Amino acid sequence: MRESDRNLDSLTAVDAAHLQPLSEPEAFAPGANDAATSHSAVFFHAHHADPPLEATTAGQIATPAIISIDETATIPPSGSTLLRDRVLVWLQHNVPEARLQHILRVERMAVELAEQHQVNRDQAAQAGLMHDLAKFFKPQRLLDIAQAERLDLDPVDLANPHLLHADVGAIVARDEFAIHDAAVLEAIRNHTLGRPGMSALSCIVFLADSLEPGRGDTPELATLRQLSHQDLHHAVWQTCEDSLRYLIAHSRLIHPRMILTRNWAMSLARQPS
Ligand SMILES: [Fe+2]
Ligand SMILES: [Fe+2]
Fold first, then answer.
1. From the CA of 188, how far away is ligand 1's center (Å)?
2. Ligand nearest to the CA of 15
3. Which of 119, 161, 234, 251 allows an S-S link to 139, with CB 3.0 to 4.6 Å?
4. Helix/strand/coil (H/E/C) assignment for every residue in the chain
5. From ligand 2's centre to the CA of 105, what distance in Å?
6. Which ligand is nearest to the CA of 98?
7. pLDDT digits (tens, 9 = 90+) for 209-254
């Protein structure tokens, strides 16, 4: 039930966590950056489908001051509000409204988890806000950027380039918003598949992406949310398993990194505290 939801945007996807159709506009009008995809992809979230979305028309929003944001999803950032405003304007032009609301819920939950687990809240907010920057990049654009960056691509990445939106999102954060905080960039990179040895910050963004309130209200999600506040590694382990169960049940490709993340998180969760 995570963002593979969203990340599982094709029959070959594996981005895991997530799994049920996330309704997003069939044709999202991108802004000047031409970042959006036509969205042939259908994303899945394990337990709950997001409500139907309205496409955001590029160019409607000129300043952050008039961005309409669900009050329940906004959080007062303690970091640079100027940077946050710039990112929000960029997102308004590059992702649909429903995706923006998801991003804001991820930002909020990441901050909550950071405070709970004594992790830097500003880094959590920044990574949460920027985790899906490349969500609507077209597959070829994702591949072109990944190859230009000489990323090490797994065959599953090639079969489902949408999985690269996490890695490419970190590149956009670096190049578009001059983010050079390695921990933040890593958390963006790891938000879909995780990574063995990932930091607490990365665990938090991974979990916030999968478990933010918009993902649904199933008993399984409630359990995972509770776990995320108690034990990050245990929650990552269980979230991976949830995603893997879905992927197997639906005969989808599994990215090997999801399995490595699951094994790593399980080994740590089982250590006595
Ligand atoms: Fe994502
Ligand atoms: Fe996301």
1. 9
2. 1
3. 161
4. CCCHHHHCCCCCCCCCCCCCCCCCCCCCCCCCCCCCCCCCCCCCCCCCCCCCCCCCCCCCCCCHHHCCCCHHHCCCCCCCHHHHHHHHHHHHHHCCHHHHHHHHHHHHHHHHHHHHCCCCHHHHHHHHHHCCCCCCCCHHHHHHHHHHCCCCCCHHHHHCHHHHHHHHHHHHHHHHHCCCCHHHHHHHHCCCCCCCCCCHHHHHHHHHHHHCHHHCCCHHHHHHHHHHHHCHHHHHHHHHHHHHHHHHHCCCCCCHHHHHHHHHHHHHHCCCC
5. 9
6. 2
7. 999 999 999 999 999 999 999 999 999 999 999 999 999 999 999 9
CA 99 to ligand 2 center in whole angstroms: 8
* pTM, two decimal places: 0.78
Instruction: State the distance from the centre of ligand 1 to the C-alpha of 169, rounded, in angstroms.
Output: 9
d(CA 189, ligand 1 centre) in Å: 9
